[in-house]
Amino acid sequence: MIELRTSPHMKSTLSLTYIMRQVVYALIPICLFSIYQFGLSALALILVVTSSCIFTEVLFNKLANKTSKNKTIYSSLKDNTALITGLLLALSLPPGFPLWMSSVAGFVAIAMGKVLFGGMGFNVFNPALLGRAFVQAAFPVAITTWTPAGLSDRFSQFIPTSLTLPFSIPVPIDGFSGATPLALHKFEGISTTLASLFLGITSNTSLESPPFASGSLGETSALLILLCAAYLMARGIMGWRIPLAIIMTTLITSGVFYLFNTNSPSPLFMLGSGGLMLGAFFMATDPVSAPVTPIGMWIFGAMIGLMTVIIRLFGGLPEGIMYAILFANASVPLIEAISQPRKFGFIANKKKDKNKENKS
To answer: Does residue 7 belong to any structural domain of this protein?
Structure first.
């Protein structure tokens, strides 16, 4: 008896649960390093955001009555996608971001970024970045209030803005406010050493501050992020085309501007600063919201790298990776339409073949 099945006929031995578990393992060192940099506030932020994402997932499962003999409202948590969304979202937020706003970000990430599109496998945009974009628009002051890392009392007390009450304006206290390396370069013309950026100990001798700079939790060590991504690539879980396209385009585009204007950030500064490394390896590579065609991956990554540089140099905000990835997510249907591989046995021009037959 011949058994007929629909394509694809080749199946991977890697399950979704296994793949997502490995991604969680890869994100843990980055989270731990951010906790080392920012202390209790970073730990609380990660816990609140991930808890909010998990709670929202369970809530909508219950509202949708996703229950059967072998399925409960908690079944969808087994694939760890809600946990990964929470971790990535937390890593994209400032360490002193009010915790109640963080819970709102987690709710929006799952509700609008995942559930609204039909659940796992149907989201058009990266859910973590969608949640981050929402709080960027809703709470512009809080999302741009930065805190220096490496404070001496970071493990004994919270950053004051973390405990801001709901619907009140967070007011940064003197001695806690700071600026990211990107903001320092863009608005004050102060550069941060490349070694500091790539190692995660971003120091600046012209400022009276600890030997760390401000930034989101994920603006940690570019080298650490690269090592964690290499772990996933070695296991065949993360592709290399999209990150490489982003990195190459960022280096080439920023290099052209730097060639004509040495006051512009250098290509290596562009690469090591901000959330570009985290976005390139852990957000742009989301298998649902990214293209699946090889050529499409190159186009997708090049678009993100180009837009990130343009926004950083000419936009009102110093960072641009979030908007670049979201815009590229929206362009995926078009990218896949123009990058489809040639069909096997496809006849390029049927009219010419008919003419040949008639002549013969």
So the answer is: no
217: left (phi over 0), alpha (psi -120 to 50) or beta: alpha
Q: State the Cα torsion 111-117-122-124 to the nearest 10°.
A: -90
Number of domains in the chain: 1
pTM of the model: 0.85
Q: Whose CA is closest to 93, among 132, 126, 119?
A: 132
CB atoms within 10 A of CB 38: 30
Residue 71, amino acid = K
Domain that holds residue 73: 17-176
pLDDT per residue over 31-84, tens digit each?
A: 999 999 889 999 999 999 999 999 999 998 888 776 555 567 766 778 888 999
Of 309, 294, 305, give the one whose Cα is nearest residue 241.
294
Side-chain-side CA neighbours of residue 307 (13 Å): 19
Q: Would you say residue 103 lies in a domain?
A: yes
Angle at 185 between CA 211 and CA 279, to 5 degrees: 80
**Residue 211 maps to a domain:** no
The pair of three-digit structure tokens given for residue 203, joined into one six-digit string: 């120091």
